[in-house]
Amino acid sequence: MIYFRIAVCEKFPDCCLVFKYIFFNVLHHLGRINETYDHINRKGVYFTKFMSYSTQSLHAIIFVSSATENFGGDKLLELLQPLRENRQLKNLTSLVVYANGNALSLIEGEREVVEKEYEMLKSYPAHHDLIKLYDKPIVHRYFENYSLAFKSIGNPSLKAIDDFNTGENKDYWDECLSLTDDQIIKIITDFIKNNS
Q1: How far is CA 93 from CA 14, 25, 70, 132, 194, in A?
Q2: Which residues of the chain does CATH 3.30.70.100 include?
Q3: What are the tens digits of pLDDT across the range 122-141?
C-alpha cells in the first residue's frame, strides 16, 4: 500500500481542495482508493490529509429501519457496544443516525463482509421494516475512525452518547453534511430533514 500525504495550506485552503480533488480523481482512474482523514476546516485551520492507494474494493449499504421500542441512552449503549466490537473485528465502519424511533444505518467495508452484515441485521431484534436505500461500491470510507458511530437527532436525553456532540467530532459531522453533492451525504441529510 502506498500512502500520500497532503498538507492543507492555511492561506489557500480552497486551492488545496481543488488540488486534492484532481489528485484523488487521477488515482481513482488508476484503481480503487481508500481515503482517510480528519477533516478540512473551511476557515483555513491546518489539517493533515492522507490518501492510500489500495486494490481492496470498498462497498457501502445504507438502509432505514424502525426501532421496536423507544430506547433510552442506557439501552442504546447496551445494543451498540457488542455491534461496535463485532464490526471492529470485521474491519467494518458504520454510522447510525437515530431520530424519533427511526434509524438510518450506513455500513462500509469489503463488499462480502458488508453484505453479510446486512443479512444478519435483517433479523436483528431491536428494529424492523428495513428498507435499503443504497448498495454500491465507494472509493473511500466516510466514518473510518468509527466501527459504529452514533448520531442522535432531536433527543437531548441521548446527547451523552452522541459521537458528534462536541469538539472536532462535531466539526467533522458538520463538514460532512456540507458536502451536498455527495450521494451518500444527501441520503443522510434527507433522512435528518424528514425526521426532525
Answers
A1: 29, 23, 25, 17, 24
A2: 58-194
A3: 999 999 999 999 999 999 99
